[in-house]
Write a structure and sequence with these properties.
Length: about 160
Amino acid sequence: MKEKVYCCRYAHCKFADKKLPANKMILSKGLYYHRECFAKRENINKIIKLYIEIIDPSVVVKQLRGAINNIVFDKNVDSGYLLFALQYNLKMKIKNIKSPYGLHYLINDRRFKEAYDRYKDEKNSVSIKLPYDNISTSSTTFKSKPPNKKGFNKILK
């Protein structure tokens, strides 16, 4: 019997052979991905979630995703490095990020590159836990209460 072959569903898949057997792919929400594509997708989702939760909850997600895609796909920066640089920056408070485009400054800084090299060396020998490493990529429900409306009725009383 012939083994089923699936196509990688990642929009930015760089592999020439997008079709692989199911045992070499990762299944997520009914879609199949290469292991590398899935890891890149998860890292980008963690970066977005971390940015929204810690840095700026009112950011325009389209701009944030555009800045991340520019860094990861156009400049060919590893998504794991960008995630590490953001986490390290939040922990050490090295640069003040106020805009999604400020992420470009993180990837070029010598301090982050050296810390990432040390992290990779230590990760190979001992498991290290970074802050904000346990951010889940599941959806979050938002609840809001409308503010108390004050108008002329309060003034006239």
